[in-house]
Write a structure and sequence with these properties.
alpha/beta, three-stranded antiparallel sheet, globular, single chain, TIM Barrel, 16 strands
């Protein structure tokens, strides 16, 4: 059996309703992937994730390579057994750390010297090492090692990122095929420059990847530049393979991604904003820490059937945040993850019913309003 099978079930414009078959299960698309950087999605258990219909999560190869280390992961026969999660996992290659961990960094043709954010030790990450890390983790989807340039660094640096990403993609693919039969996605770079994006797409799409990702977006550039690149690139990506946008989580962005042919997206968005008191709902988003909710007996969302909304009031959750009780963050995280999963279900239903553009318009209208957040 192939490590990844993909089928497009229905289309509306460029938007696609699909299905991905992976070693640890089937993923219905479009789908949102919660981020579990350190082999956990912050503040929730795998059981809670399953209760809220999470299909697939993302973990980070570089961080798990540092702690707990590959020797520990091998002892547990991979990441699934280590964290007791039996559904699909996608692992980021460490390429994003090339973007985010600048201190002590040195980029060469062979790989990148990166300083550990834990203890300051230096590590030389190559495409081959990234593949060995991800093979040890045993993820369902491996990401090729790439170079994500900062858009502020300009055209020449972005061009360098495209060239290195292509070189490293070839090495990633060749090495993974030597050591594992895991599915692997190639990553398209090029920052906010159409000619570089086209160059990267042409080079990466020639390789025998199981899927393709848009990298280097939602990394600080203006939202209009993000959308411009997605509109340019999305519909041009290979039709018969899954398309993944790295780093999208806000509902108003997600509907634009789907409109341009994206099948998968991930973000720390729901878990991060929940820890800061932000509730995400069908009526928009609001900050539960606001004084207006002090006496509010209603749930976060009266139409939501998550554990939090079925059992607790806004007033109680506000109290927990006010007293810095971690339970408040846990309850809001449960709600926000549940909302993103329900959002994915409604997205897929709208594509099945040919009402996606109506759904998209409603979400954009709600999230363009100003809320107390």
């Amino acid at each position: 059996m192939d490590s990844l099978g993909f089928e497009v079930l229905r289309k509306e414009g460029h938007a696609r309703r699909g299905r991905i078959h992976l070693t640890h299960g089937v993923v219905e698309t479009p789908t949102f992937m919660p981020v579990g950087t350190n082999a956990n999605v912050k503040l929730v258990t795998p059981h809670v994730l399953k209760e809220n219909n999470v299909q697939i999560i993302l973990s980070n190869a570089f961080h798990l390579y540092l702690k707990p280390g590959l020797d520990v992961i091998r002892q547990f026969n991979g990441l699934h057994e280590f964290m007791r999660w039996d559904r699909p996992i996608l692992t980021d290659s460490g390429g994003f750390q090339v973007f985010s961990l600048k201190r002590g960094q040195k980029i060469t043709d062979d790989g990148v010297w990166i300083m550990s954010p834990i203890d300051g030790s230096k590590h030389f990450i190559t495409p081959e090492l990234s593949m060995e890390i991800q093979a040890t983790l045993g993820s369902d989807i491996v990401m090729a090692f790439d170079y994500c340039a900062d858009p502020k660094d300009g055209y020449e640096e972005s061009k360098k990122s495209v060239k290195l990403t292509t070189k490293w993609a070839k090495r990633s693919l060749e090495h993974l095929r030597d050591i594992s039969n895991q599915a692997i996605f190639g990553i398209i770079q090029g920052a906010i420059y159409e000619d570089l994006r086209e160059m990267s797409l042409n080079e990466i799409a020639q390789m025998e990847f199981n899927g393709f990702a848009m990298g280097g977006l939602s990394v600080g550039e203006p939202r209009k530049e993000t959308i411009k690149m997605v509109e340019f690139l999305g519909p041009k990506m290979p039709e018969d393979k899954p398309r993944y946008f790295m780093g999208g989580g806000s509902p108003d962005l997600l509907v634009d991604l789907v409109a341009n042919g994206v099948d998968m997206f991930d973000s720390v968005f729901p878990t991060r904003v929940a820890r800061h008191g932000l509730a995400v709902t069908w009526n928009g988003k609001f900050n539960i820490r606001s004084a207006r909710y002090k006496y509010d007996k209603t749930p976060i969302d009266e139409n939501c059937n998550c554990y939090t909304c079925q059992n607790f009031s806004r007033g109680y959750i506000r109290h927990l945040f006010d007293r810095q009780e971690v339970l408040g963050q846990i309850l809001l995280t449960i709600h926000d993850i549940h909302f993103l999963m329900e959002f994915g279900e409604k997205l897929r239903e709208s594509l099945e019913n040919s009402t996606f553009e109506m759904f998209r318009g409603g979400i954009k209208k709600v999230y363009e309003k100003n809320f107390d957040c």
